[in-house]
Amino acid sequence: MTAATRVTAATRVTALLRSRYAVGLGFLAAAVLLFAVAPLLLSGFRLGQLGRYLCLAMVAVGIGLAWGRGGMLTLGQGVFFGIGAYLMAMHLSLADAGPGGTPAFMTLISSDGVPWWWEPFRSGTVTVLAILVLPALLATVLGLATFRRRVRGAYFAILSQALAAAFAILLVGNPATTGGSTGLNNFVGFFGFALRDPVNRQMLYFIAAGVLLLMLVVARQLMVSRYGELLVACRDSEERVRFLGYDPATVKTVAFAVAALMAGVGGALFVPIVGIISPNDVGVVPSIALLIGVAIGGRTTLAGPVLGAIVVAWAATTLSEQFPSGWTYAQGLMFMLVVAFLPGGIASLVTLRRRRSATPAVGRTA
Amino acid sequence: MDTLVTQIFNGLSVGSILLLAALGLALTFGQMGVINMAHGEFIMAGAYTAFVVQQALGAAGLSLLVSLPLAFAVGGLLGVVLEATLLRRMYHRPLDTLLVTWGVSLVLQQLARDVFGTAGVDVPSPAWLSGPVEILGFTFSRSRMFILLLAVAAVTTVVLALRYTSLGRRIRATVQNRQLAESSGISTRRTDMLTFFIGSGLAGVAGVALTLMGSISPNLGTSYIVDAFLVVIVGGLGQLRGAIIAAFALGVAQSWLEYSTTASIAKVLVLAAVVAFLQFRPQGIFRLRTRSLV
Fold it and tell me: Which residue ranges traverse the bilayer (chain B) (predicted)?
């Protein structure tokens, strides 16, 4: 086979992969897998674990958008994940305590009762609204504050990491209101449904699967839209975008806010599925750990981050049960090898032909 | 008055630790643009070098003096290996160096856990560094004083070396214009390697200093790395004097806020102050003037 025919064959495969039908088929296959195959094959416990991976995959969709497409290496997604999770956990604790009641862990530590900033989250509606609004709002404020001043690249990455560090320290430092390093746990009900009931647990899994698919649809629409092109352009040459009359700060802030929203929703669903949220899930280390799945799967693709996040989360649970220290070595080696030698992730092996959008912003991120 | 002096001294002391941790970064990140997340683990390696030397020699005073140059060599060698194997091929994508070196730091931490155990170990400080010292009627901790002097000595050495030695000239030339330096006969590869050796070696020295402050554990580095990077960012890339000012400013702010609020609130306030500061000076206190758009 000559080089020319190889190229046309590759182009044809790529075109097929990119076509509307292929994407539709992919979604269909994912839906069948998540809604029919997985519940039939997996036990209730394993299904709950899969639900947990799906929540982490939601964060990964956002990271893929902000980092892969927008070039913003955000090391602080744990903060948005944590805000969503803690809001949900606060509501569940308050709901368990009954109207006007005080969550059990608070009465153990101090006798001050429920602090004022907990009170609004007695209402389920307020909580859901806050989960949808607060992480995105914080991301918008931070994004505008940094991107407008053209703080980017490494500066942005390190600021977002410092944010994650500060968030975890703040949580640990206030045990009376946030549960400290133990976090919040022992939830009984979820909006009136008993969490102990296996049927309700399965329902939670279905919610997570549905939300993840919805996020993928949203991310796909954003990626193929004019906005998506603009975002990639900002990643590859911010100056050129500015010269063309666009404002890169706004473009990047939108992607950052969408990523934060996805992380927040992922966190909110994580809490009832896993049953605990603690600073160990939101600090510097878990925030970076979220990136490895995205990097392995292929940061610029739609499905890569999701599949990567699910596989890495699964490997983490399975391997760390048997070889706790082995898993840390494996994780470290994955970071070193994948990022250094395969920056496009597994997806770059699959796509055959290197497209513009599939090429990470090599050499232009400085 | 008493508390004021104590607070300022505490601030300077915290600042000097930050400076020691950030000085190496100011070289590798500031001069070369490599984001070395494993820098914290080089600090940890330096601290464990002091521990091993102490175990071997016994005498606290002698082992401190021996471990300072030895930790410099250990940190430097780790840095050179990292540079030669992984980072060399990645100079054109600085953001990815962050993730690669994060992987390195995970491996080094786990290695330390497997070798030395998860629990912290103590390196007893020599007799001439324990207890307080009285100056002008105020009492200061001797070990903190020693760290302050060590930081000043390290900074002075690096500044003088950068300015007056031929190696320093080569480093500055490579940073300012790589191609031109290369065509003037400077081996930029060797310069990169030496810069990395010195920067990582300074992390090892910082690790020895930290053994005077308390017990050391495998995750010693993680508690300093974020702050050290903030110092370099606030100071401005490629500028050592910026890092010096930033380290002491952050140190004083941190300890003063910790005194008037709580440790966790102080952390958050310092971060907020850094973000606010970058609104006014996005490139730090001092910036390198270049003609590039970025």
Answer: 12-30, 68-87, 145-164, 193-216, 228-253, 259-280
